[in-house]
Design brief:
With 221 residues, this protein is mostly helical. The protein contains nine helices and no strands.
Length: 221
Amino acid sequence: MLNIFNTELDFLILCLSTLFSLVNPLGITPVFLAMTEGYSQQDRVLIAKKGVFTGTITLIVFALLGSIIFSFFGITIEAFQIMGGIIFFRSGLHMLDAKVGRTRTTAKEQEEFITANEIAYTPIGVPLITGPGAITGAMLLSAQTNSTVSFGTLIFSILLVMVAVLFIFMGGEKLSHKIGVTGMRIIQRIMGLILMVIAVQFMINGVSVVLNNISSLANAG
């Protein structure tokens, strides 16, 4: 019982650290504030709630479909670990430079969307909050679940991260005034470094299994 608890606790920490780093709420908050600058506080809160809801549903759907997609396309978990690690590493590099990746939003998108509904669902919900990296992370973590309890841990992690995003968005202005732009960039860079370490570990895990398989085939031959 204790071993199961420790295993799930380790997986919970992995899920939270991975998803929080990939969503990068502190890094995207200035973009959210800029995109909602012309709205009242009430509209801004509504946009944040709808955007977070959209992002949450998107992550849960891809977490549910992860194993189905792997089976349909014949993708191994090791291949996805290596590919996911590369994507995570690239995202981490952007965070170290205190940048938001071009896959999240563009200057044109920030100017295009006018109504609260349009801006809430896209580009704020997808891909600002839930970008390619976060979707890949959800699928990769889903593929590592070996029980209903583990999958529940992943869903719980997604909900926790999204609640954190909502609170950070809603208090974005106060937060930016308190810790300043420099403080937010420092935190973002720390999260980027953590994400890069996670990325390297994912790649090591994937490559190790591939090399072991090759070694086993060579010995069998």
